[in-house]
Amino acid sequence: MTQPDLSCSNPPHWRLAVIGAGPAGFYAVGELLKQQEIPVKVDLFDRLPTPYGLVRGGVAPDHQKIKNVCKIFDRIASQDHFRFFGNIEFGRDLTRKEMLEHYDAVLYTVGSRSDRRLGIPGEGLEGSHSATEFVGWYNSHPDYREKRFNLNSEQAVIIGMGNVAIDVARILSHRMEELRQTDISDQAFLALDSSRVRDIWVIGRRGPVQAAFTPVEARELMHLPDTEVELEADALNLDASSKKFLQEEAGKDTRKNIELLQGMLETPPRGMKKRLHLLFLASPVEILGKDGRVTGIKLRRNRLLEKPDGSMGAEATDQTFELQTGLIFRSVGYRGEPLPDVPFDDTSGTIPNEAGQILENGKRCPKEFAAGWIKRGPSGVVGTNKPDAIESVNRMLATLNASESEPLEKGEVPDILKLLQNKGAEVVSFSDWKLLEDYETKAGEAEGRPRKKVGTVEEMLEVIRDRRQD
Ligand code: NAP
Predict the structure, then answer these.
(1) Ligand 1 contact, 23 CB (< 6 A)
(2) Average pLDDT, stretch 137-165?
(3) In whole angstroms, how far apart are CA 233 and each of 43, 78, 411?
(4) 30, 302, 333, 442: which has the fewest C-beta neighbours closer than 10 Å?
């Protein structure tokens, strides 16, 4: 274990912990180390031996450019007064009480680990999955390695029209040559290579103007070499309110989406191997099954209805229809999970907070803060987490500055490293992670890929242990 012991130094520094090494965690660390107001030491924890959160485990393998942000995170991690504690899980290895005893302030940036459910009959049948599972599986996330998906089904149905739904649809639609050059998991590559999926349905409960995907992602669908996009002939016959919104209020992304959808609609069928159907104004009613397995999905048509707040809602009609399928993904948003002992709002799936400062029973916690999806909910792209993290860091600094307490380092407080060593935890430092990264990159190079990811925590630790000894 190569982690330095930073338990004492002069002048005393404020010891800060950030829990969760995804984008929000790294942006917060960067901001904390950049500021000049108070001297700080920052420890960044993650339950996995690997950093970068959803940039590693969520961003699609054919979106390698987005992963370049890791270079910024690496520069942040190379600074003095920073340590990474990988393979350390809050709640399992460290409690809230222990964190508060060892740190002057704690920032939770754990993201939204789970997913929202549809709440319809049949959701638990074999063949019905969350998009989160599929995304984790093709990205070699250790939590999802054992998952299996029925790629023998000729039709796949994805409920929801956000960017995650589009990612899933694109991965199911790709030609294998494109995926071969990525860091997709070997297991997923092999399974997709023999996939029989030909018709991929992406189902939005509202209309095209309300679709949650963004134009860059929509445009990519038009350039899939084996797949054509199909829309219903009347898909862009907008209702009066949507038309008015588009003309008077819509932002540039919505306008661009409509332009792209128009292009898709006008492209004549080309007889391609696969079809990606974007179906608007439909909601799932029931997942149908036989012998415990999905055999189809019952949907109902919706019409748009203007709500009192001016937004457009989906109102059910009595028209229903069914699609035969053995593979269904719900992609209706991620959801935060509670951390042991930490306040949690079950309705929103977030930690209650005021500008990033955690609220417990309505009162501000003097030493605890949150940033990223666990603070605001699962929205926005990687970069959205920067201003969000800055807001929380500013609140943390202002709170520390205004507090009458002094840095813990002024007293005799042991380093958290000692506590973890006493517990027998196996800490993965940032230099340890770099050994693993080097291993993955070299294994990838041999196959002309950016990296070949190691898929289980145990294998990751073995690779690191072997290389530490070299
Ligand atoms: P999202 O953008 O919030 O989309 C969720 C979708 O699910 C919406 O179409 C929503 O429809 C629909 N939905 C919600 N509840 C539903 C229900 N009960 N029945 C049917 N449909 C329902 O979520 P996401 O796709 O998980 O993405 C999360 C965030 O990550 C987003 O900010 C996204 O942009 C970002 N992301 C970005 C990229 C990228 O940049 N390439 C890739 C992946 C994810 P309504 O609009 O009607 O609520």
Answers:
(1) no
(2) 97
(3) 55, 55, 72
(4) 442
Q: Which residue has the tokens 């012991």?
A: 5
Per-residue pLDDT band for 5 (boundaries 50, 70, 90) equals: low
Please report, for the chain, the start and end positions of each structural domain, with discontinuous segments joined by +: 6-113+336-428, 116-334
Rounded CA separation 50/220 (Å): 29
- The mean of the pLDDT values for the chain is 96
Query: In the CATH hierarchy, which fold is given to the domain comprising 6-113+336-428?
Result: Rossmann fold (3.40.50)
> pTM of whole model > 0.90?
yes
Ligand 1 near 155 CB (within 6 A): no
Protein residue with least CA distance to atom 36, ligand 1: 163
pLDDT digits (tens, 9 = 90+) for 294-341: 999 999 999 999 999 989 999 999 999 999 999 999 999 999 999 999
Please give the distance, rounded to the nearest whole angstrom, from the Cα atom of residue 162 to the centre of ligand 1.
3
Percent of the chain with pLDDT over 70: 98
Picking from 279, 281, 288, the residue whose alpha carbon sits closest to that of residue 322 is 288
Task: Give the per-residue pLDDT at 51.
Answer: 98
> Which CATH number among 3.40.50.360, 3.10.129.10, 3.50.50.60, 3.20.20.70 corresponds to the domain 116-334?
3.50.50.60
- Out of 164, 285, 304, give the residue to mutate to test ligand 1, the one with the largest number of ligand atoms within 8 Å of its CB: 164
Q: If phi over 0 gives left and psi between -120 and 50 gives alpha, with beta otherwise, what is residue 182? A: beta
Beta bridge partners of 228: 275
Residue 6 confidence class, pLDDT cut points 50, 70, 90: low
Atom of ligand 1 minimally distant from the CA of 332: 7
pLDDT digits (tens, 9 = 90+) for 238-294: 999 999 999 999 999 999 999 999 999 999 999 999 999 999 999 999 999 999 999
Q: How far is the CA of 127 from the centre of ligand 1 (A)?
A: 21
Percent pLDDT > 90 in the chain is 95
Residue 94's pLDDT is 98
What is the amino acid identity at position 282?
A: A
Query: How close is the Cα of 165 to the center of ligand 1, in Å?
Result: 7
Cβ 384 under 6 angstroms from ligand 1: no
Cα separation, 288 vs 147, in Å, equals 21
Token pair of 3 as six digits: 């982690």
Residue nearest to atom 46 of ligand 1 (CA): 212
Alpha-carbon distance of 141 to 138, in angstroms, equals: 8
User: Of all residues in the chain, what percent are helix, strand and coil, respectively (each to 5)?
Assistant: 35, 25, 40
